[in-house]
Amino acid sequence: MIATAQSNAGTRAHAEPEPVDAGDPATLFVLRVIHFVTNYVVSHLPSFGLRRMWYRHAVGATIAPDAGIHLGCYVWSYTSRQVKRTGFRIGAHSRVNRGCCLDARGRLDIGQNVSISPEVTILTASHAVNAPDFRVELSPVVIEDNVWIGTRATILPGVTLGRGSVVAAGSVVTRDVPALSIVAGVPAREVGTRDAGAAEYVLDTPFPLFE
Fold it and tell me: Do the beta carbons of residue 202 and residue 189 sit within 8 Å?
């Protein structure tokens, strides 16, 4: 389990500059090959187990044995060493559905029993719009236990989604969301509150074959 989100929904985590390390041409080539294989080959293999193994060993993610990433997801990262240093974790019984974009360039921490619907985008990196060099900045995203994110929602860098919160389909979340809150819209605003007992479930249904 991970820490509870702040009650103040107007906050975001502090951004840090993107690490600049071009590396030698041979290393860059290998990294680009791994990135290609991750997102255009492995992400289309019809096996949760094979994909999980690749994300752990080639990408550097920490994924619980009973968590799953569905077909067609795009994982954005630099190197496995960077991912292990900054952190990319998916907790027990969590599900990332088809066609999602997971940005692991910054820290991405997904708790237990989290349901991420198809085509959700979670970003940990953005450009500094007022910087003369248009540099990339990294901010962590934390998704606490039993959160449900609806289809095609976007979670922007620096956001924490509190335990049991719900993000409606198509929403753009720009600020922290308190525990058990229901948010919707662009930008997302609180529209309701979830019952405390509604966030106690375990997503332990078996993974479907050939998915």
Answer: no
> How many Cα neighbours within 13 Å face the side chain of 119?
6
Q: Which domains can be identified in the chain, with CATH numbers?
A: 21-199 (2.160.10.10)
Amino acid making up residue 1: M
Distance CA 41, CA 171 (A): 30
**Phi, psi angles (nearest 5°) of residue 51:** -65, -45
CA–CA gap between residue 103 and residue 117 (Å, rounded): 16
Beta strands in 4-127 (DSSP E): 16-17, 62-63, 68-69, 74-76, 88-90, 95-96, 101-103, 108-110, 115-116, 121-122, 125-127
Spot the catalytic one: 14, 44, 70, 127.
127
**Residue 126 CB contacts under 8 Å (≥ 6 apart), including other chains:** 15, 136, 137, 139, 156, 157
**What is the pTM (predicted TM-score) of this model?**
0.89
Q: Residue 165 has which token pair?
A: 């919160």
What values do phi and psi take at 32, rounded to 5?
-70, -35
Q: What is the pLDDT of residues 63-93, one digit of tens each?
A: 999 999 999 999 999 888 888 888 999 999 9
CA–CA dist 116, 210 (Å, integer): 19
Please give the distance of CA 144 from its chain centroid, rounded to a whole number: 11
Which strand (E) or helix (H) includes residue 181? strand 181-184
Active site residue 35: no
